[in-house]
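Pipeline run #58 for the internal structure catalog. This entry was flagged by the ingest filter as a single-chain record with no existing model, so it goes straight to prediction. Upstream metadata was stripped on purpose; only the residue string is passed forward. Reviewer on rotation: M.T. Logging verbosity set to normal.
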Amino acid sequence: MTNHAKRVSNLATVLDHHREEIATAWAEMVHRLPNAHYRERSLDELRASTMRGLGGIIEALTTGSYASLKSYLTDISLTRLQMGFDIAEVIEALLLCKDAALPVIWRTYPSDSAAGREAIARLDGCLRFTVGCFGRLYAEEMSQHLRKARDELGQRVDERTAEIRRANESLREQIAERKRGEKELREKEAQYRSIFESTSDALLIFDLDGTIVETNPAACRMYGYPYEELVGLPGQDIVHPDYHHLFEDFKRQVQASGRFHAQSIDLRKDGS
């Protein structure tokens, strides 16, 4: 083993020997980050995460394989995104590994020694890889998250559009049905108006107060009034005074049953 490889191995050995201490200090530093989502997580949860992350770093320094570290970063990129973490706060938390490891490194290597500086440089290199790898993984997860959100939004828009289309079709059918009904009503009204106007029988329509509200030409001829005068005339003006009491009966019976039948002597405009 070369001297360079021995130094790398020694750093990994130091970190592994103090794994519990470094992981705990790292978790506590992360938990104290101001205005970060980490404050909402328990120390036990954070310590489990830093322990796994530190294990990946030690493996990378020992064997040169970043498989465990990449697996760890893949998991936290997904979970932190789902928890609403910002990428900056996760990167800041990852970099705190160095702050947690420094006290151990300076206790192990002579103060300001070349070996200590090289150990820190090696750790910095590993953390640079860690941060870069996490950034790429986080960006991929974010892209997938956005695509999923876009697809779900598109599906909801399609569903809502279909609902609106069905509602519009139903509304058009209702409008068409209403127009057909209005047309039929106008046709019936025209038919009834034609019968009302052309019949030879005198027809009068009264409101509940006994006032004439509609009449036909035959009634105008019969009572000797022009249409404009007959409509609006109190019914008592065309009935002999001996029969005026019938109007009270008329109002009472119509309100009770909707019907009224009586006989009376009527008067023309000229009193005949």
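catalog note: The longest strand covers residues 212-215.
catalog note: The longest helix spans residues 114-198.
status: ready for reviewer M.T.
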